[in-house]
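QA checklist item 7 of 12: single-chain prediction sanity check.
[x] sequence parsed
[x] length recorded as 79
[x] structure emitted
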Amino acid sequence: MVRLREHDTVRVAQLLTPQRPFDGTEGVSRSPRVGDVATICHEYDPDDSEAPVSVEMVDGQGNTVWLADFHRTELEPAP
């Protein structure tokens, strides 16, 4: 299994918590969806493969569509 790290580009493969809290830029924000491509922007505990990671998806203008915490098992490397 590939170890996902900070700054990796990832795809949301599954949503174990579909109604998770998220932040984003007003007017463009929405909740994460399976298939979204985003970037891991923070590892809460890089030494713990079970620790959550913070992931951000931005649009073409650099606005944050969503920023949310995920379990690594919900993510896969982006193609």
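[x] summary fact logged: The radius of gyration is 12 Å.
[ ] second reviewer sign-off
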